[in-house]
Design goal:
This protein has helices at residues 2-57, 60-70, 84-91, 117-128, 138-147. By secondary structure, it is mainly α.
Length: 148
């Protein structure tokens, strides 16, 4: 009888220790779950704030005003637009050079006057097929220097 009492005592102690460990592990997991739920809520709030900022920053009227003010851009004129046929003609490979750049400006009878000499130099480089990567930046920097 003494052996069975010791066996039952050891078994009860093992069950108590096991329940203790499981209880603390469950509490740790519940704490982690609450922390993750709180993080999810804060991320949702941050996402809503970012979406509101994005919609404000992408308002067409605001972008148009900034492009006019900072970049000196204007609404495109009729001479700057292409029809679908002209686009296809421009994208078609040239028979002599084998490139996909076709100069359609001579085919159009619209006269485009560049605002600065830098713009005309850039256009000449593009037509010759040797554009500089930073050419697009030169007119913007020139306008910024004038504004200062």
């Amino acid at each position: 009888m003494r052996r069975s009492t010791i066996l039952w005592s050891v078994l009860c102690i093992a069950v108590v220790i096991g329940l203790f460990v499981v209880k603390h592990r469950v509490q740790d997991l519940e704490d982690r779950l609450q922390a993750l739920n709180a993080e999810i809520l804060s991320d949702r709030d941050a996402t809503q704030v970012l979406e509101a900022e994005w919609s404000y920053l992408n308002q067409p009227a605001r972008l148009e005003a900034l492009s006019r003010k900072l970049l000196g851009m204007e609404s495109p004129s009729a001479g700057q637009t292409l029809t679908l046929d002209e686009f296809r003609l421009q994208a078609a490979p040239d028979e002599e050079t084998g490139t996909a750049i076709a100069d359609i400006s001579s085919k159009r009878k619209s006269v485009q006057k560049p605002e600065t000499e830098a713009v005309s130099e850039i256009a000449a480089k593009i037509r010759s097929g040797k554009p500089d990567i930073n050419d697009w930046l030169k007119p913007i920097l020139a306008k910024m220097k004038k504004a200062q």
